[in-house]
Specification:
Blueprint: E1 10-14, H1 18-24, H2 29-50, E2 54-61, H3 69-92, E3 96-100, H4 108-121, E4 128-135, H5 137-153, H6 164-170, H7 172-175, E5 183-186, E6 205-208, H8 218-229
Parallel strand pairs: 1-2, 1-5, 2-4, 3-4, 5-6
Helix pairs in contact: 1-2, 2-3, 3-4, 5-6
The protein binds farnesyl diphosphate.
Length: 240
Amino acid sequence: MIDKNRLPGHVAVIMDGNGRWAKKRNLPRAAGHNAGMKAMREIVRRASDLGIGYLTVYAFSTENWKRSVEEVSGIFKLLVMFVTSDLRELKENNVRMNILGDCSKLPEDAKKSVERAVSETESNTGLMFNVALNYGSREEMLNAVKEIAQKYKNEDIELDDISDELMDSCLYTGHLGIPDPDLIIRTSGEKRLSNFLMWQASYSEFVFTDTLWPDFTPEEFERCIEEYQSRDRRFGGRRK
Ligand code: FPP
């Protein structure tokens, strides 16, 4: 059973395995992403019901542009569909949606959809649901370093002002006031971070599962949280 008093404040998920799920069924990869979107919807609902503060999902990385034009445009079409079908429910449930990543390169209709979802939910105070889109951790850190260099050049800060906190505040997550993830879940048996939240994951707990993302259920999500709750987090200190 989950201990509701010790929930992870921020859960981040690497939703992996859509392609393999489709292949196993002799379906096109797009069918895997479509099923993945449905699984994501259920996890957002459960995270919101449980009272989790922040849920971040890795939907599209800066490296995913290497996939076929057809697959890439299919993923962005799904994003538009998700906003069209789910925005009302997100609003009813007091969910705030945000994007982590560089949206300027998104197709126009996808950009419009996310802008609408972000602006229409910005005053909500429940779950903050962050979609990492055209997101890459190295790019995020390079942007932060440039922001800091600019502040130094403008003589707004001195060398000794460059700290963990300043770096935090210059990341996409920092701009939005999102804390570091307590728990990172990756599905499909892969055990890599794949350029996801590399600065923020310094003390995160990792749970890996062999389940392919479209088969990942709210019940398994709860089991991952139970696993997290069984861990002994010391943040580099000693066991109390
Ligand atoms: C990884 O599976 C999944 C993705 C790159 C896309 C994630 C997208 C969704 C879950 C649905 C869409 C949701 C939104 C918000 C757009 P993979 O294709 O890498 O799987 P594979 O490793 O088995 O090939």
